[in-house]
Amino acid sequence: MKNIFDAGFVRDMCSTAANMYRLGWDERNGGNISYMIDKEQVAEYLDIDKAVREIPTGFDAKPLADRCFIVTGTGKYFKNVESDPETNLGIIRISKDGATAKLLWGYRDGGKFTSEFPAHMMSHIARLKVDCANRVVMHSHPTNLLAMNYVHPLDERKFSHTLWEMCTECIAVFPEGVGVLPWMLCGTNEIGEATAEKMKEFRVVIWALHGVYGAGKTLDETFGLIETVEKAAQIFMLTSHLPRINTIKDEDMVKLAELFKVNYRKDFLDI
Ligand code: 2HA
Ligand code: ZN
Question: Is 116 one of the annotated active-site residues of the chain?
Fold first, then answer.
């Protein structure tokens, strides 16, 4: 059996959490990541039939039966993931009936997965129906995006359009725009269900006055998606109190979307 600390999926979770912390997106225990890993890949490092303990999922996770995930722990700080992955991360395998998760490794101090587990797993279920290559769901509190929530209408069309205007390549990176949920109580099945509903249409979902959810095929791709949205929000926050004398026009965004051959939300443009 190979050493789990050398596994690419553990190393990549460590570097992603470290980068998110470095950028100020994940203060204290803010943020969480879940990353689906092939059973066969996990089996190179761990006995996938041997559970350290079982943890109730708290909802019907049957559509993910037998799937393995590496997930950040509840109450854990992104700041500490890289120096102690075995305490701050866990590798789980969802049981056949979806009611429990077998802990295969991690949460060494007796902990469990993030309180946002329902939102993560429900988002995985929704995204896998749209794109069978989806593997990652990521939540964080990027500073400028959160600031923008306080001064910009929380309307999907308007919010997406403003973000697209802020950096030339935004429309190519998230051509479907961003979904926006109203403020809701976090850590509940209800916010999980609402997030998953939005994930049918968007890979980026804003939790108003809280943070953002992103989904993608790899940790890098999902990180890059949130990074691009956050950069656009930063440009907005740096300029929104100043007179705007130049802007990227809707017809320019169309040219860009056509160049990148992306299927963009035409109804989010004034064309
Ligand atoms: O787990 O970010 O939304 C910490 C959070 C909750
Ligand atoms: Zn949060």
Answer: yes
- In angstroms, the CA 61 to CA 55 distance is 12
- Ligand 1 neighbourhood includes 186 CB (under 6 angstroms): yes
Other C-beta atoms lying within 10 Å of the C-beta of residue 72: 30
33 vs 17: CA distance, rounded Å: 8
Among the atoms of ligand 1, which is closest to the Cα of residue 186? 3
Other beta carbons within 10 Å of 17: 28
Residue found under tokens 């802007």: 247
Cα–Cα distance, 203 to 170 (Å, whole number): 13
pTM for the whole structure = 0.98
Considering Cα of 115, then 120, then 122, then 125, what sign does the dihedral take?
A: negative
CA dist., res. 211 & res. 206, Å (int): 6
Q: How many residues does the chain have?
A: 271
Residue with tokens 């896998």: 128
The Cα–Cα gap between 76 and 194 comes to 25
Q: Pick the catalytic residue: 27, 54, 116, 193?
A: 116
Question: Residue type at 83?
Answer: S
Asked if 175 contacts 154 with a C-beta cutoff of 8 angstroms, the reply is no
The span from the CA of 264 to the CA of 254, in Å, is 9
Closest listed ligand to the CA of 209 = 2
Per-residue pLDDT of the chain (271 residues; tens, 9 = 90+): 999 999 999 999 999 999 999 999 999 999 999 999 999 999 999 999 999 999 999 999 999 999 999 999 999 999 999 999 999 999 999 999 999 999 999 999 999 999 999 999 999 999 999 999 999 999 999 999 999 999 999 999 999 999 999 999 999 999 999 999 999 999 999 999 999 999 999 999 999 999 999 999 999 999 999 999 999 999 999 999 999 999 999 999 999 999 999 999 999 999 8
